[in-house]
Design brief:
43 strands; 806 residues; globular; five-stranded mixed β-sheet; mainly beta
Length: 806
C-alpha cells in the first residue's frame, strides 16, 4: 500500500506474521546501518534511501530469517507483510517494487486473523463483508448478503478456485446454520464488488475468492463458545510432500432463537467436516483434494408469541398460540480434486473435477391461532401491558412437504502462461446439473371462523352479515414435481499486462467469457441458449508525490439462470428464461496517505449498472421467489467510500459508507424500488487494546442500513406495497484477554501446552435494537383492515468464547 512519505527517502512498513497469520513481536529488521524492531502487534516501520537497491534482513531467534531487496521511489511507502516460518526454508531473495496487483484489480483483501476474531451472531467471512461499502444484509442470522443492488443469488463464491453452492430450500436465516467457508482453514480472502475479470464466473454482482492454506507444521486450533465450536488439525509429512488440514464445526443457534419473542422448543444441529489435502509428487506435478460434508437439522416447535406494536396512544398487540412443528434437514456432500502440472516457470496447467450433492427436506404443519387487541397503556395500572379488548380473532394453518435432490458435477481445464510481461489465462468447463424437486405448500387463513379465499379468487363475500355459499379455496396453494437437467459449457480467455507509460505505472486486463446451456427434463421442452461476456480493466498510478491510483473497469455481464430462477411462483419450470444482462461500469480511486505517522487509505468507487432481461422476484426473509420471466428492466447506481488504516498502532480498522439507488420497471408499469434498494449504508470495524494491558483486546462491529422495501405479503403486487421496513441498526462487541501467545509462552505449569490461549465474552446487539426482517399480516374481520406485525430479529445476547492453539 504505497503512500506519501518524506522526500529523498522511501518507507517500508507492515506486519510480520507467522504461518498461522499471528503477529510476531521483537523481530529485528536491518537495512545497512539502520535498524528497528517490530512491536507487540508485529508492526514495523523503517526508512530507506530512494531509487537504490536496499537489502533488508528480518531475523528472530524462533524463526528462519528472511532477506528481501527493495527499490522504492522518492516519497513512496510500501507495505510488506513477511511470513516467517519455523521449519521451512525461506526464499533467499525477494525483489518487490511498484503497485500491488490486487489494488489495481479493485480487489479488497481481508486479514483472516481479523475474520476469526470479529464478533457477530453468525461469525465468519460474511460477517466481516457486511461492514464493507456496497455490501448489505438486514439479517444477522443469515450468511447471505446483497451487493450493489443485487440479490443473494448474484454472488460468486470460490474456494481454491472451485465454485461452491448453498442450499436451495432455506427460507429463513435461523435455518441456515453454517457458512460453507471454514475460517479456521483460510489463508487469503479477496473480494470484488463489481467490474471483475473474465476469469470469474457469470454472476451480476460480486466475487468472494477464498484460499485455504497449506500447513507447514503440526498444529491444533480450537474455538469454543455458547453457540458451538470448531476444531482444526493440520500437519505435514517428514519429506514435506504431503500436507493435511481437517476442520470440524458445530453450531447451535438456540442461544439466539430462544431470546426472541416467540416461545419455542428449538433443537437445531448444524455440523460439518472439511478437508484439504495436498501431495507434491514432483517439483512439477501435484494433487489437491478439497472435501466437505455437512448436515443441518432444524426442528422447530413454536408455542406462544406476543408482539406489541403501534404507538403509545394506540398500543396494540398480537397474541399467537401455536400447534404443530417444523422439521427440516439439509445434507450436502462436496468433493473436488485438482491436478496441477507446472511445465516450466511460464506455463502452468490445471485439471479440476468436482461434485456437489444436496438432499433437502422441508416439512411443516403449523397452526397459529391469533388474537389482535388493544393494550392497556395506562402507566401505574396493575394491568399495564395486558390485552384488554380483542379487535380480531383468527387462525392460520401452514402446510409444507418440500423435497429436493440435486447433483452437480463439474470438470474444468485451466491454464496460465506468462511471456515478456504478458499474462494469459484460459479455461474450459463442463457442468451437469441434475435436480429433482417436489414442492407442496398451502396456507389456509380463517378470520373469526370464516375461511378467506385466495386473493386472486374473488367471490362477493360480506361475512359475517350474510352466509357465504361459494367454494372454499386455500389462501395459497403451490404444488409441483420437477425433474430438470441443465448442461453448461463455459470458457474464458483473458490477457493482462503491467508496464510503464512515461513515468507512470499502468496495468490493463481484457478478456471474454462464453456460456452455453441447455435445459431439459420431464415435460420440459429442450431449450438451448448462448451468451458472450466481454470485460476489461485499466489502472494507472501516476508518478506524483501524492500517492494516487485510478481504476476503470466494466463490461457486459450475464447471469444464465440457475434452477431456482427457472421455477416460477407456481413451481413450474420455464426453460425459456433468458440470462439477465447488465452493462456494468466502475470508476475508482485509492488515495494513500499518512496520518499520525501511520498508514491510511481512502478508497472511492462509483458504479452504474444498466440491467435488461430482468427476472423479477420477491424476498421473504432469505427465500427468493422468481417470476421466471424476463419482463422487466432495471438500473443501479451508487457511491462507495472506505477509509481504512491504523487508527490504533499495529491494528487495522475501517469506516465505510455506501449510497445506492436501484429501481425496476415491470411490464412497462413504471419504475419502482427493487427489493434490494438499500439506499444508505454505514459500516465500521474497530480494533483496540488497552495501552497498559496490551493483552486486553477489543473488537467492535457496527452496521447501519436504511430500510428495505418489503414486509408485504408474498402474493402482493409490488406496485401496491412500496413501504419500507424500519432501518437496520446493529452493534456487536467482543472483549478478549490473551493469556498465552508467541511472545508470551510458558515453560511449565498448566499454560505450557498452549501456543495461544485467549478468553473473553461477546455482546451481540449491544443497544438491544428491535430490528425486523418481515411482517406477519393479520386482518380485522369487522373493518377488513390488515395489520402488519413485525417479525423481530434477535435482541441483546451475551456469549462466552475461548480460543486456543496447541
Amino acid at each position: 500500500m504505497p503512500i506519501m512519505a518524506v522526500a529523498q527517502s522511501g518507507t517500508l512498513q507492515g506486519v510480520i506474521l507467522d504461518e498461522q497469520n499471528h503477529p510476531i513481536s521483537n523481530v529485528n529488521i536491518k537495512a545497512g546501518t539502520q535498524g528497528t524492531q517490530s512491536n507487540e502487534n508485529g508492526f514495523y516501520f523503517i526508512k530507506i534511501p530512494h531509487n537504490e537497491n536496499v537489502k533488508l534482513v528480518f531475523t528472530h531467534l524462533s524463526f528462519k530469517s528472511i532477506t528481501a531487496s527493495f527499490n522504492l521511489k522518492d516519497g513512496e511507502i510500501f507495505e510488506f507483510n513477511p511470513v516467517m516460518n519455523t521449519k521451512v526454508e525461506q526464499i533467499a531473495t525477494v525483489v518487490l517494487s511498484g503497485t500491488k496487483r490486487k489494488d489495481v484489480q479493485g480487489i479488497v483483501t481481508l486479514n483472516p486473523t481479523v475474520i476469526r476474531k470479529i464478533p457477530g451472531a453468525n461469525p465468519g467471512i460474511e460477517n466481516l463483508l457486511k461492514t464493507l461499502p456496497g455490501v448489505s444484509s438486514n439479517n444477522e442470522l443469515s450468511t447471505q448478503y446483497s451487493v450493489r443492488g443485487g440479490n443473494y443469488d448474484e454472488n460468486l463464491v470460490y474456494v481454491n478456485g472451485i465454485e461452491v453452492y448453498r442450499p436451495f430450500l432455506v427460507r429463513s436465516g435461523q435455518q441456515e446454520g453454517l457458512s460453507f467457508v471454514n475460517t479456521d482453514m483460510v489463508q487469503n480472502v479477496d473480494f470484488s464488488a463489481g467490474g471483475f475479470q473474465a476469469k470469474y464466473g457469470d454472476k451480476l454482482s460480486s466475487v468472494l475468492d477464498i484460499t485455504y492454506r497449506k500447513p507447514v507444521n503440526f498444529g491444533v486450533n480450537a474455538d469454543l463458545s455458547l453457540l458451538g465450536g470448531s476444531v482444526s488439525v493440520e500437519g505435514i509429512s517428514k519429506d514435506s510432500k504431503f500436507t493435511g488440514l481437517v476442520g470440524l464445526r458445530y453450531r447451535d443457534n438456540s442461544l439466539l432463537v430462544n431470546a426472541k419473542e416467540t416461545e419455542t422448543n428449538y433443537d437445531p444441529k448444524f455440523a460439518d467436516i472439511q478437508t484439504y489435502f495436498t501431495y507434491q509428487f514432483t517439483d512439477k506435478f501435484s494433487l489437491n483434494f478439497l472435501g466437505n460434508a455437512s448436515i443441518n437439522k432444524y426442528n422447530y416447535e413454536p408455542e406462544t408469541r406476543q408482539t406489541n406494536f403501534g404507538t403509545l396512544d394506540d398500543a396494540q398487540a398480537l397474541l399467537v398460540y401455536y400447534e404443530g412443528e417444523e422439521k427440516d434437514a439439509y445434507q450436502t456432500l462436496f468433493g473436488a480434486l485438482e491436478a496441477t502440472y507446472n511445465v516450466n516457470d511460464d506455463l502452468s496447467l490445471h485439471v479440476v473435477g468436482s461434485t456437489y450433492h444436496t438432499t433437502e427436506e422441508e416439512h411443516f404443519d403449523i397452526l397459529a391461532e391469533y388474537r389482535l387487541g388493544e393494550v392497556n397503556s395506562n402507566i401505574g395500572d396493575e394491568d399495564l401491558g395486558e390485552v384488554e379488548y380483542s379487535e380480531g380473532i383468527g387462525g392460520q394453518l401452514n402446510h409444507g412437504r418440500n423435497d429436493l435432490d440435486a447433483l452437480i458435477t463439474n470438470i474444468e481445464h485451466k491454464g496460465t502462461y506468462t511471456k515478456n510481461g504478458n499474462d494469459f489465462n484460459w479455461s474450459i468447463k463442463y457442468t451437469n446439473e441434475d435436480i429433482r424437486d417436489r414442492l407442496v405448500e398451502w396456507e389456509v387463513i380463517d378470520s373469526a371462523g370464516f375461511s378467506i379465499n385466495a386473493p386472486d379468487y374473488y367471490v362477493p363475500n360480506d361475512q359475517p352479515y350474510n352466509a357465504y355459499e361459494g367454494p372454499l379455496v386455500a389462501y395459497q396453494n403451490v404444488r409441483a414435481t420437477n425433474s430438470t437437467k441443465i448442461n453448461r459449457l463455459q470458457a474464458y480467455a483473458q490477457w493482462s499486462r503491467r508496464f510503464e507509460m512515461g513515468e507512470h505505472e499502468v496495468w490493463v486486463n481484457a478478456g471474454i467469457r462464453s456460456h452455453s446451456w441447455t435445459v431439459s427434463g420431464d415435460n420440459i421442452d429442450k431449450t438451448s441458449q448462448t451468451v458472450f461476456s466481454p470485460r476489461a480493466q485499466f489502472a494507472i498510478k501516476p508518478n506524483w508525490k501524492t500517492d494516487m491510483l485510478f481504476r476503470v473497469s466494466g463490461g457486459l455481464y450475464y447471469q444464465p439462470p440457475f434452477y431456482r430462477e427457472l421455477r416460477d411462483a407456481t413451481g413450474t419450470v420455464i426453460p425459456e428464461v433468458k440470462a439477465q444482462k447488465s452493462i456494468h461500469f466502475v470508476v475508482g480511486n485509492d488515495y494513500s496517505f499518512q496520518m499520525w505517522e501511520r498508514p491510511f487509505k481512502l478508497t472511492t468507487e462509483a458504479y452504474y449498472k444498466d440491467i435488461t432481461n430482468v427476472n423479477p422476484y420477491t424476498v421473504e426473509n432469505v427465500r427468493i421467489r422468481y417470476s421466471a420471466s424476463n419482463n422487466a428492466v432495471a438500473y443501479a447506481y451508487g457511491l462507495d467510500l472506505r477509509l481504512n488504516g491504523e487508527f490504533v498502532p499495529g491494528t487495522e480498522s475501517w469506516f465505510s459508507f455506501g449510497y445506492l439507488k436501484t429501481e425496476e420497471n415491470i411490464d412497462n408499469r413504471g419504475y419502482i424500488a427493487r427489493p434490494t434498494d438499500q439506499r444508505l449504508k454505514f459500516g465500521a470495524l474497530f480494533q483496540d487494546y488497552v495501552p497498559n494491558i496490551p493483552a486486553m483486546k477489543m473488537y467492535l462491529n457496527l452496521v447501519y442500513n436504511t430500510g428495505l422495501p418489503g414486509g408485504s405479503p408474498s402474493y402482493a403486487d409490488p406496485y401496491n406495497y412500496q413501504t419500507r421496513l424500519p432501518d437496520y441498526k446493529r452493534a456487536d462487541l467482543g472483549l478478549q484477554y490473551v493469556i498465552v501467545e508467541e511472545n508470551k509462552e510458558f515453560q511449565n505449569g498448566w499454560k505450557k501446552p498452549f501456543k495461544y490461549l485467549s478468553v473473553g465474552f461477546e455482546i451481540f446487539n449491544v443497544f438491544d435494537v428491535q430490528n425486523s426482517i418481515t411482517n406477519t399480516w393479520v386482518r380485522d374481520v369487522y373493518s377488513k383492515k390488515q395489520y402488519a406485525i413485525p417479525n423481530y430479529l434477535t435482541p441483546r445476547v451475551f456469549n462466552i468464547r475461548t480460543t486456543m492453539k496447541f
